[in-house]
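Onboarding guide, step 5: your first structure request.
Type a short instruction followed by the sequence, for example:

Predict the 3D structure of this protein.
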Amino acid sequence: MDESPASPCIRNCCLDQNDICLGCFRSVDEICAWSTCDAAGKHRILDSAANRKQQRNKT
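The system replies with structure tokens like these:
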């Protein structure tokens, strides 16, 4: 059984023009859904956030 990951929130909440948090790189919808997601859903959110962070760092 997969353990549910901890929230990636770093308390640096500021949304960009696309409603992506500049602290954790989750979308507003992902932030709202976090508390009801199972472990697999949370891992998908973390993967998406990591991809967004990587893309942002390339620019």
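Each response can be followed by summary notes, for example: Residues 13-59 form one domain.
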